[in-house]
Design brief:
mainly beta
Length: 359
């Protein structure tokens, strides 16, 4: 029915024009369609493809714009968004009581180098700082990250960290070492958007950590690590969002374990996190969203020096509370504080500041 009405509307102007310019009467003959009696050159071409435009000045309604998926709002869980961006992040944390645990923060303590050759734990190749066994460390770390989106589903990124290390306390009788600063271990990786809609994102992240930091100064771990992870982002409504992650750190080429064991001092570490956020303010150029994140790690193996023992199935859980401030659709600032909830810790407290610029 709609097609028939359209054809009729197309032909009405032609019929009217034909009646106004009809030639003198001729003997009757079967009626023909007006479009067959008019010179095709006299018919406006636009009438052949669409009806005349309205003359009352009204414009057709524009097609609804596709709303882009909003960027990540969390501060500690990894960002699932695929886009070109630059990020500056600064952490300051303290009360690190086992810095060489599973060679996650820095490598096996250099104190093993100073043990006598007859000592069963002697290791002349122990790469970490020494001779003191640090039992309380403070640190600051600056991260510079650049990400480039090859398309809407794939991006690559690199991260340059700079670390400042300040030991506060040592196990009595083991000696000391001083403050250190310098480049830490470089990271690089890729992200693939397995699912990417206006409300849902599921991203596969593959990351490598490269031993560019000086492990003898506590600036790196002195081995390569591979880190696959899944990142999730779900908009529950216009203001409420849930983000999550799960991944594993797989070290390669870590130090020897303690004593005659053939196991590595480094250990596999599973990590996970979940973080809801809610926009409490939304203006023309500003958005403010508090966010709460529960982030955890499970250390599956490795060793630590503070107890001279193996680490197995150790759980570490932190609570992070902060706020994200987005403005002008491209700039974002995060401020957040984290606190350990378990007796075992990487650090007992951490403060994070972040600036992010999208392109």
């Amino acid at each position: 029915m709609k097609s028939a009405l359209t054809v009729l509307f197309l032909l009405m102007p032609l019929a009217a024009a034909g009646q106004q310019t009809a030639p003198p009467a001729e003997p009757e003959r079967p009626a023909e369609h007006p479009s067959l009696t008019r010179d095709p050159g006299e018919i406006p071409a636009i009438w052949l493809v669409e009806p005349p435009a309205p003359t009352d000045g009204a414009q057709p309604a524009p097609a609804p714009a596709r709303r882009p998926r909003r960027p990540s709002m969390v501060g500690y869980i990894n960002d699932s968004a695929i886009r070109s961006q630059f990020r500056i992040r600064f952490d300051t944390g303290g009360d690190i009581d086992a810095p060489d645990r599973a060679e996650f923060f820095y490598p096996k303590c250099g104190c093993y180098r100073d043990l006598g050759q007859d000592h069963p734990a002697f290791d002349p190749d122990a790469p970490g700082p020494g001779p003191g066994i640090a039992s309380n460390l403070e640190y600051q770390q600056l991260y510079l990250q650049a990400e480039y989106a090859l398309n809407n589903r794939l991006s690559v990124y690199g991260e340059l960290p700079v670390r400042w290390l300040r030991p506060q306390e040592f196990v009595p009788g083991t000696g000391t070492f001083g403050d250190e600063a310098g480049i830490s271990d470089l990271r690089a990786g890729a992200k693939w958007g397995m699912v990417s809609t206006e409300t849902t994102a599921l991203t596969l992240q593959l990351q490598g950590t490269f031993p560019t930091g000086d492990g003898g100064k506590g600036l790196g771990v002195e081995h390569f690590s591979f880190e696959p992870a899944l990142l999730y982002n779900q908009s529950l409504n216009e203001r409420l969002r849930l983000e999550a992650q799960v991944g594993v750190v797989l070290p390669s080429g870590g130090s020897d374990g303690i004593g005659t064991t053939s196991e590595s001092f480094a250990g596999n570490v599973i990590y996970y996190g979940i973080g809801p956020s809610v926009e409490v303010y939304r203006g023309d150029d500003w958005r403010v969203a508090p966010v709460v994140e529960l982030v955890g790690w499970r250390v599956l193996g490795g060793y630590q020096t503070t107890t001279f023992s193996e680490v197995e199935d150790m759980d570490i859980v932190n609570l992070k509370v902060g706020s994200r401030f987005d403005f002008q659709d491209r700039h974002s600032v995060y401020v957040g504080y984290g606190r350990a909830l378990t007796d075992s810790v990487w650090y007992k407290h951490v403060l994070r500041l972040e600036y992010r610029r999208a392109f």
